[in-house]
Amino acid sequence: MTTFGERLTAATATRGPLCVGIDPHPGLLDAWDLPRTVAGLERFAMTAVEALGPEVAVIKPQSAFFEAFGSAGVAVLEKVLAGCREAGALVLLDAKRGDIGSTMAAYAAAYLTDDSPLAADALTVSPYLGFGSLRPALDAAAVSGRGLFVLALTSNPEGPELQHAVAGERSVAQTIADHAAAENAGASPLGSVGLVVGATIGRTGVDLSAVNGPLLAPGIGAQGATAADLRTVFGDDLSAVLPTTSREVLGAGPDVAALRAAARKSVDQVQAALG
Ligand SMILES: O=c1ccn([C@@H]2O[C@H](COP(=O)(O)O)[C@@H](O)[C@H]2O)c(=O)[nH]1
């Protein structure tokens, strides 16, 4: 069994270090001249899969926009997950799950086990019920060769109030980074427990050097960060950075060739910034 860290390393080496999000915002459906219905959602999402699936290393569907349409929207999400897989892209489901351990076990069954229709290569999770509450997801991911991205320093302006707070001698974010490092210890070339660290946040003040896992960097484009900001945020830890952007690329649609061109432009920009 290959690990998520191994598959991610291979995918970014081949396709470049970029994740593109599928975020079917109502305004984007309008811009693509699609109805704000399940049919519009499906057309939007599957066009994005057709354009980006053969092109980028990782695709990140944002679960919220699918859940907003109820069970029919979740059925579209299932098609997106299968379509990304068929096209050769890794799929990171952005659902930011986090709960008490016994409920976390149910989330792990939903997203991190082979026979689930919602299984993804990796899942975003929230550690704010305590990192240890993620244990069922950590164990399920390890057993099935999947990955997790743990929220550490999020891209939104409200994040620092909680994430920079000092508890004991370390900031909350540093504690999360240290837990991830412990999970990834000894993994090569990269562990499968990543962190989310926003490209918008400036200098992190957090030592990420021991994490040994992928660092997902949202915030480029619509949230105001640029590829050039990655160097400021990550300093010497650029090698494991996986920038992710959604609206910046999706805004180029609905034309498939235009979406691909936008993704390629973003890959070139982040490759230049990461060196
Ligand atoms: O800290 C975080 C964690 C997750 N996100 C998600 O990434 C995308 C960003 O979309 P853009 O259109 O590129 O702004 C979205 O799905 C967020 O939920 C984040 O932005 N920041």
UniProtKB/TrEMBL annotation:
<keyword id="KW-0210">Decarboxylase</keyword>
<dbReference type="InterPro" id="IPR011060">
    <property type="entry name" value="RibuloseP-bd_barrel"/>
</dbReference>
<feature type="active site" description="Proton donor">
    <location>
        <position position="96"/>
    </location>
</feature>
<dbReference type="InterPro" id="IPR013785">
    <property type="entry name" value="Aldolase_TIM"/>
</dbReference>
<dbReference type="InterPro" id="IPR001754">
    <property type="entry name" value="OMPdeCOase_dom"/>
</dbReference>
<dbReference type="GO" id="GO:0004590">
    <property type="term" value="F:orotidine-5'-phosphate decarboxylase activity"/>
</dbReference>
<dbReference type="Pfam" id="PF00215">
    <property type="entry name" value="OMPdecase"/>
</dbReference>
<dbReference type="InterPro" id="IPR018089">
    <property type="entry name" value="OMPdecase_AS"/>
</dbReference>
<feature type="domain" description="Orotidine 5'-phosphate decarboxylase">
    <location>
        <begin position="17"/>
        <end position="262"/>
    </location>
</feature>
<comment type="pathway">
    <text>Pyrimidine metabolism; UMP biosynthesis via de novo pathway; UMP from orotate: step 2/2.</text>
</comment>
<keyword id="KW-0665">Pyrimidine biosynthesis</keyword>
<comment type="similarity">
    <text>Belongs to the OMP decarboxylase family. Type 2 subfamily.</text>
</comment>
<dbReference type="GO" id="GO:0044205">
    <property type="term" value="P:'de novo' UMP biosynthetic process"/>
</dbReference>
<keyword id="KW-0456">Lyase</keyword>
<protein>
    <recommendedName>
        <fullName>Orotidine 5'-phosphate decarboxylase</fullName>
        <ecNumber>4.1.1.23</ecNumber>
    </recommendedName>
</protein>
<dbReference type="GO" id="GO:0006207">
    <property type="term" value="P:'de novo' pyrimidine nucleobase biosynthetic process"/>
</dbReference>
<dbReference type="InterPro" id="IPR011995">
    <property type="entry name" value="OMPdecase_type-2"/>
</dbReference>
